[in-house]
Backbone:
């Protein structure tokens, strides 16, 4: 099935130098992302100078997100995976004391102060489209053909029911021959004959003395 990428959310990463310390992912239902040096806000942000706490750092728009720039932070942008470049003041949108930059599906924005940097980018959520593509149908047909070819291959290799029965019979005959040879080696290959009354030895009749009694 085909998957269509949709940039519905906001992905944030906090770096100290080149080491990533934290990461957050906000879904499309999070229309406003507040930041503060506080664990109770959606984006706990330490080390940045914020004009107010909590500080509105991102706001969802029809095209993506509006990223608000803290006054003491440097702002850079990367388009289509290219290297980050400083955003000129002329590209910043302003309203009173607030300044922001637009974040679209092809952008990444980086806010930096000292050794800290906050990377903001659209998060990708996959949406499935109904139905199978022609490529999926072809793969399914190949899989079915492979599964059906396995029994045929076994028959061609000689593993038919008749062949298996013949093999079992040969194995049983070989086992019986081996058993007979072992009995012959031990001298027990001739079965014992039952004794008849006539073959028993005659013990004869003995006369007991008169003084012998049974008590």
Residues:
């Amino acid at each position: 099935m085909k998957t269509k990428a949709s940039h519905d959310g906001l992905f944030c990463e906090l770096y100290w130098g080149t080491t990533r310390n934290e990461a957050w992912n906000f879904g499309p239902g999070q229309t406003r992302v507040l930041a503060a040096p506080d664990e109770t806000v959606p984006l706990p942000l330490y080390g940045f100078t914020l004009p107010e706490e909590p500080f509105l750092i991102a706001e969802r728009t029809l095209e993506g997100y509006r990223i608000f720039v803290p006054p003491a932070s440097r702002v850079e942008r990367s388009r289509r995976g290219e290297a980050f470049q400083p955003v000129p003041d002329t590209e910043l949108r302003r309203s009173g004391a607030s300044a922001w930059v637009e974040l679209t599906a092809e952008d990444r924005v980086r806010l930096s102060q000292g050794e800290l940097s906050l990377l903001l980018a659209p998060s990708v959520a996959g949406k499935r489209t109904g139905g199978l593509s022609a490529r999926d149908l072809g793969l399914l047909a190949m899989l079915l053909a492979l599964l059906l070819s396995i029994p045929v291959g076994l028959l061609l290799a000689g593993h038919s029911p008749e062949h298996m029965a013949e093999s079992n019979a040969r194995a049983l005959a070989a086992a019986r021959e081996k058993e007979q040879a072992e009995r012959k080696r031990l001298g027990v290959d001739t079965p014992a004959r039952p004794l008849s009354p006539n073959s028993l030895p005659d013990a004869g009749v003995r006369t007991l003395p008169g003084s012998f009694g049974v008590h």
In short: Residues 161-186 form the longest helix (26 residues).
